[in-house]
Structures are given as C-alpha cells and as structure tokens.
What does this fold into?
Amino acid sequence: MKEETLGKILSQSPVFSGASHDTLARLCSCNVRGFRGGETIYSPASFFRGIGMVISGTLAVHGKNGERDILLRTIDKGGIFGAAALFGGNGEYVSTVSAKKKSEVLFVPEETLSEIFMLDSGVSLAYIRFLTERIRFLNGKITGFSTPDTESAVALSLLSAMPESGGEFSVNASRMSYALGIGRASVYRAFASLSEDGIITYGNGRVTVLDKARLYGATRK
It folds into this structure.
C-alpha cells in the first residue's frame, strides 16, 4: 500500500488524526498484513503485543458468556483493537478477533507505540479518550449481560453488531437468540418495539440504527 494512502487512512483515525508528520511517517513504516475472511487475527492464546488498525475490510470481536460465543463488536476501516495486549505482562488476550471478509491490518508494536506516546502528546491524549470510550462500552456490556430485560439485551447486542461507521448491517436473529439465551420470538418482538419507537428499522435480516443515542438508552431500561 502506498504511504500517502496509508497516511490518509491514519489521519482519519480517532487516535491518530492529530498525529504529527513524523508520527504518521513512523506509523506508515509498520507492518501491514492481509487476512482472508474467517481467519483468526488475535485469540486468547495467540496475539501480537501491540495494537492493530483496520486498513480495509471488517473484523469481528467475539468473547465468551459461559459456553456461548458472543459478538462483542465489529471493527471497520480506521478502527483499532488490541489495547488489552499492551503493557499487561504475559497473560492471555481477552477475546478473539477475526476477519469477517478479506481485510488488511496495520500492526503497531508496543515499543513503537510507547515511543510515540512520549514524543507526540496529541496521540497520547487521543489514546486516553479511546480507552475511556472502551471502558464505557464494556460497562454497558456488563449491564446488558446481567439485565433480565429482553429489549435491553437486544439493544446492546445491536450496538455491538453495528459497524463503527454506522449504516445498515446484517443481523441473524437465531444467533442472537442463542447468544442471549432468549427465545427467537422475543428477539423479533424487541426488534418490533425498537422499530415502533423509531430507533431502528428492520427487515430481511438487515438493521439500520436511526438513533444511536436512544438505542444506547434502551440498554438501560
């Protein structure tokens, strides 16, 4: 990939949008790797000690809820993952990251990122904001897994499945039903309720989020 193309993608990232020219040049020298659809990128037992940024394609992040495999979020172009792999000793990674389709990922080693933090305060502050948003998201996840309310759980699952760029995305009601441990009819009723409230549209296995703030609010009923 050409450096100017990679630099443009980096400059659109919430973490690196305010990076200096020298920082962007250094990031552009990091390794970019391609992945096939379905290929595992990070797993609890095998992961890169650094962060990854999606250059093209879409990734899926899955975790475990007991024996159930839970979709935690999707990551599209410009999205970042791997924060839990940094500065944390030799423990396992917390989730499994895989490519939903053919994708490219830029990998930034922990050592390189540490040096950037020391030299570029704008990136340091942006990364702190990124981590703060992740904490808020994960707190919402914990609430969603513990809530007995079906609509709240479905709303949180939709927030997880929604690409970071928004827009329409596919939803498998059967898989959601299994992951949440609720009946499929209950999932459809929650879709209908959220649609009637003007929060989403749903049809033919596709969902469009019309009001992200209200959908987040629905997770806290």
Notes: Residues 148-218 form a domain with the Arc Repressor Mutant, subunit A fold (CATH 1.10.10.10). DSSP finds eight helices and eleven strands in the chain.
